[in-house]
Amino acid sequence: MVDSARARLLEQVRGYHDAQVPGPTPFIPGQTPILSSGAVLDADDREALVAAALDMRIASGGIAAKFESSLAKVLKRRKTLLTNSGSSANLLALSTLTSPELGDERLKPGDEVITVAAGFPTTVNPILQNGLVPVFVDIELGTYNTTAERVEEAMSPRTRAIMIAHTLGNPFPVAEIAELAARHGCHLIEDNCDAVGSTYGGRLTGTFGRFSTVSFYPAHHLTMGEGGALLTSDIKLAQLAKSFRDWGRDCWCEPGEDDRCLKRFGLSPGTLPDGYDHKYVFSQVGYNLKSTDLQAALGLSQLAKLPDFIEARRRNWRQLREGLDGLPGLLLPEPTPGSDPSWFGFIITVLPDAGFTVPDVVAWLEARKIRTRRLFAGNLTRHPAYIGQPQRIVGSLTNSDAVTERTFWIGVYPGITAEMIEYVIGSFKEFVTTH
Ligand SMILES: Cc1ncc(COP(=O)(O)O)c(C=O)c1O
Model-level pTM? Predict the structure, then answer.
């Protein structure tokens, strides 16, 4: 009875979806917005969300666990921990590495973490939040990533970790930087939030560092509204990270479970009385960064479409790259040598002698409903939040400044069609011939 009512409701949900989203709407140049990014959601996604709601999967449980193991398989890591955002996954990665359980490997207040100056704030914030010192290096224009040489130059006896994002899907030279990290006894954390599916030397990004992170905010390759994940193939680190994610607790029972270790009342950790309930024993100074089954249900249904999403992003990027090639005044993006990016966006820098500025191009594009974005913060060290914070800057940040002043990006996400891209290319051509 309940099963057939559920099946009927879900069938109605699909009917509702088809009525609400009757199919592709015609593209009207100059009127239909061409977004920089957005969620691409279909009837399966709607059904997955409603099914989880019908089952009242309001906390983290079986669907989250299934999503974690599925994502680990797809991204070729042994363990995934679902979190409530990509920023939380970054915080979790770095906080876990401060655990006293890691002995000499542990990050301690005042230790340095090398990162890049131009990017998203929450790649850097966990460094400061954990009392560590960010060491900022510059990036290259064209790839918008740093180099192994710049990272090596920034190393000091206090350097204990490297935490860098693959910029807009374009891998940083991660094999070389992983090798450098190993040689200097440093942890490498890859912020893979914008690069799911990218490869470097034929190997997926996110598989080189001790930890990597993913975001499921709607702009990203997969979405669950809000959400993120931490990945690792180090089982001990995964267990430690799970504790940090789940309030810092010592117990590893899933929610609703009671005595997986069969020692619930048989331990006496710390100075607690004998037999103190293991469910409430805390071995790390943790957080609660968990997500819910509702979010994971959407994540699972999105995951099935990941190969198509990645292909569409690559196809859209190629069409733009070919169509804009040779236009004066614009520096077009280049994949990092040896990489095959799963692009997040199409990034462009206006050359200093172009005769026009970023505000000129952006105003032209936005007037045509072609949405533009900045490379997030640009040079982070110029923002009020970071002025006066502990930090070390190595070399000049000339290119990070150039990005702040002369760089923007446009969309390649799977909601953009070939027809839209032709219009974007035509708009750029018209702009450069009239300016
Ligand atoms: C490189 C990078 N890292 C982290 C994040 C944060 O992800 P979230 O919005 O899920 O917290 C973003 C967000 O876009 C990002 O671009």
Answer: 0.97
